[in-house]
Specification:
With 338 residues, the protein is mainly alpha-helical. It folds into two domains: 107 residues, DNAb Helicase, Chain A, CATH 1.10.860; 159 residues, Rossmann fold. 58% of the residues lie in helices and 5% in strands. A three-stranded parallel beta sheet has the order 2-1-3, covered by helices on one side. The radius of gyration is 26 Å and the shape is elongated. 18% of the residues are buried. About 2% of the residues have low confidence.
Length: 338
C-alpha cells in the first residue's frame, strides 16, 4: 500500500507538453493559438514550464520566436541548463506536426485542471475532517475552490508582479483599441459614467438617498441598460418587494408609463402598445430576479458563481441582508453588512 501511494503520480502528459513546445518551435505562428489555452503553470515538468514561460514572455513583448532566440532568452532568464540545447532540438524532432497544436494544448490544460481538482478535493477533505468553521462556511469555501478551477484561476495566491503586469498591459491595449470612452460598462448616464469610469469588475457602488427618492428605480434603470446594451446577465436581489412588484417597476421605466397608473390597469390603447413593446424588450434580456427576504451573503455568492455571463449584481437593499454569521457571537451589525 505504501509503495502504491509513493508511486501515485499527479495527472500529467509529458508527451503533450513536449508536443506543444515542439509545435511552437517548428512554427511560431502557433503561439497565438496556444497562449489563450494554457498558462506556464499548466505545465507539470519544470523544464517544460520554464521553456513555455520564456516563450510566453517573448510573445508578450512581440519578440521573434525560434530555437535560437528561445535558447538565448533562456540564458537571459536564468533557465538555461547543460542539456537545454539538446532538449530544444529533441522537442522539434519528436513533434509529428504543428497542425495539431490546439489538441496538444487542450490535453495539457485538461491535465492541469485534473491536478487542480485533485488538490481542491484534498483541501476540502482536510477542512471537513478538521471541522474548520461551520458547515455553511465550509460549503462556501468548497464552492469557491471549485469555482476558481472553472474560471481558470489558480490556487496560488502569491503571484509574481511580472505575471500581473502582463495582464495589466493586455487590459491597457484592449482599452486603447476600444471605441468606448470609459473602461467599464456604461450606466446609460453619460455624466455619471465620466465620474465613476463606468461599472468595473470588483467595484462596490453604494446608492444612498432619503426614502422615496428613487434609489431602486435608478439601480433598475442601470441594470436594464447593462442587460440590453451589453447582453450581460444582471442578477437582482430584492429583499423588500416581490418579483412581480419589481417587474412592474421595470415595465413602468421601460414604457414611460407612471407606476401609479400601471398599478390600476386602466390604460389607453396607445399605452397598452407601449407596454407590450417594453415587455418584449425586457423579455429579450437576461435579468434574473431573486425575492428571497432571508438571503445571506453566502447565498448571493453561491448563486452568482453559477451565472456564466454575469455583468452586474444589484442588491436592494443592503441593510436588509443577513451576513453568514449574523446574530452569532453578538457580531457588530456594521461589520456583518460590510
Amino acid at each position: 500500500m505504501d509503495e502504491e501511494l509513493l508511486s501515485r503520480q499527479p495527472p500529467q502528459s509529458p508527451e503533450a507538453e513536449q508536443a506543444v513546445l515542439g509545435s511552437i518551435l517548428i512554427d511560431s505562428r502557433c503561439v497565438s493559438d496556444v497562449i489563450g489555452l494554457v498558462k506556464p503553470e499548466d505545465f507539470y515538468l519544470q523544464q517544460n514550464r520554464e521553456i513555455y514561460e520564456t516563450i510566453y514572455t517573448m510573445f508578450n513583448f512581440s519578440q521573434t520566436i525560434d530555437p535560437v532566440t528561445v535558447l538565448d532568452k533562456l540564458k537571459e532568464l536564468g533557465y538555461y541548463h547543460d542539456n537545454s540545447r539538446d532538449y530544444v532540438m529533441q522537442l522539434m524532432q519528436i513533434t509529428p506536426t504543428a497542425a495539431n497544436v490546439t489538441r496538444y494544448a487542450n490535453i495539457v490544460r485538461e491535465k492541469a485542471m485534473l491536478r487542480g481538482l485533485d488538490q481542491a478535493a484534498s483541501e476540502i477533505t482536510q477542512m471537513v475532517h478538521e471541522e474548520v468553521g461551520t458547515p455553511a462556511e465550509m460549503l462556501e469555501s468548497a464552492e469557491k475552490k471549485i469555482y476558481a478551477l472553472r474560471k481558470g484561476e489558480r490556487g496560488e495566491s502569491l503571484e509574481h508582479i511580472g505575471t500581473t503586469l502582463h495582464r495589466v498591459f493586455d487590459r491597457l491595449t484592449e482599452l486603447a483599441q476600444s471605441d468606448s470612452m470609459i473602461p467599464g460598462l456604461s450606466t446609460g448616464m453619460r455624466d455619471l459614467d465620466s465620474k465613476i469610469n463606468g461599472l468595473n469588475n470588483s467595484d462596490l457602488l453604494l446608492v444612498a438617498a432619503r426614502p422615496a427618492m428613487g434609489k431602486s428605480a435608478f439601480a433598475l434603470n442601470i441594470g436594464a441598460n447593462v442587460a440590453k446594451k451589453y447582453k450581460k446577465t444582471v442578477a437582482v436581489f430584492n429583499l423588500e418587494m416581490s418579483r412581480e412588484q419589481l417587474a412592474m417597476r421595470m415595465l413602468a421605466c421601460e414604457s414611460f408609463i407612471e407606476l401609479q397608473k400601471l398599478a390600476t390597469g386602466k390604460l389607453s390603447e396607445e399605452e397598452w402598445t407601449k407596454l407590450c413593446m417594453a415587455s418584449a424588450a425586457l423579455s429579450q434580456t437576461d435579468i434574473r430576479i431573486d425575492d428571497n427576504p432571508t438571503v445571506t451573503v453566502a447565498d448571493i455568492s453561491a448563486k452568482c458563481r453559477r451565472l456564466d455571463n454575469l455583468g452586474l449584481v444589484i442588491i436592494d437593499y443592503l441593510q436588509l441582508m443577513q451576513g453568514s454569521g449574523y446574530s452569532k457571537n453578538n457580531e457588530n451589525r456594521v461589520v456583518v453588512v460590510g
